[in-house]
Write a structure and sequence with these properties.
Length: 286
């Protein structure tokens, strides 16, 4: 028996004992990524519930039968896809992630990283699922604790203590203070974290400015602030409907490595950033 809180398309969702309850209406009416993946034209309580239900049925998410190794890369420029390719090439040797039923964890296996992150979205609070925790530990993962704490800063400390040097850390956009704390801690420990900000929908300009100062990669999601603040400061952008912005050379390297592994055609050209054409963005930007 467990309870979890998450956000999807700006809707707050509770999963309790395997049952889905959409607590609020989606704040995002249209998401081009979700349209491409699931064919959703207008978001509603039912569309977010249906998406989550499919993840639970196909991948066992939020339950004891969760899939913990995955080769499939469903999102063209998702965080897990970029990190999986980076880990495969040795650009990253460990990643600090968040998983339902577990909280913060450290993994050094790309197929585990992809399974954990491929469809993870906006996890706010989670309770223990022993089968997921045990399964990840059997696959060499390090857990922050068994109480499902979500705290990426001590997660990074665990990765450093384990001897990893090229450590990627995902942080939620609204927790911009975590990015600053990670940057400071990395300087103290002599290990520079690669910081990726995800789940940025609805963040403030102040959070965006803080992320711009500390992050290597930032996902725009349905955030107006990310496009307006971080996009202008970016060195490189990949994608146009949900742009991903690189703010450092380390971030650029991860994006270019994903481009190297990407199986479909791509175009690269010089442009002023952000490049975010009207009609191809989420609606509304918040």
């Amino acid at each position: 028996m467990s309870e979890h809180l998450l956000e999807m398309a700006g809707a707050l969702i509770r999963v309790k004992d395997g049952k889905i309850e959409v607590l609020t209406e989606p704040r995002v009416r249209f998401c081009p990524l979700r349209f491409g993946l699931y064919g959703i034209k207008i978001e509603s309580r039912e569309t977010v519930a249906s998406t989550l239900r499919s993840h639970m049925q196909e991948l066992g998410m939020y339950g004891p039968g969760r899939v913990l190794e995955l080769q499939e890369k469903p999102v063209s420029f998702g965080a897990s896809e970029i990190l999986t390719d980076a880990m495969s090439e040795g650009l990253v040797d460990a990643a600090v992630l968040v998983c339902e039923g577990v909280g913060t964890l450290v993994t050094a296996r790309p197929e585990v990283l992809q399974a954990v992150g491929a469809h993870m979205t906006g996890l706010l609070k989670t309770e223990p699922i022993n089968e997921i925790q045990d399964g990840l530990e059997e696959r060499g993962c390090l857990l922050l604790d068994r109480q499902c704490s979500i705290d990426q800063v001590p997660g990074f400390e665990i990765a450093v203590a384990a001897g990893f040097k090229k450590i990627a850390v995902t942080v939620a956009g609204a927790r911009s203070q975590d990015a600053a704390a990670l940057r400071k801690l990395g300087a103290e420990l002599g290990v520079r974290p690669i910081i990726l900000a995800v789940h940025t929908t609805g963040i403030s300009n102040q959070d965006a400015e803080a992320l711009a100062e500390s992050c290597d990669l930032v996902w725009s999601c349905a955030s107006r602030a990310v496009r307006e603040v971080i996009g202008k400061a970016a060195k490189l952008q990949i994608g146009i409907s949900i742009p991903v912005f690189a703010l450092t050379d380390e971030g650029k390297r991860l994006i270019l490595n994903r481009a190297l592994h990407f199986p479909e055609s791509l175009v690269m050209h010089r442009a002023s950033l952000p490049l975010a054409p009207d009609g191809k963005q989420p609606e509304p930007l918040i």
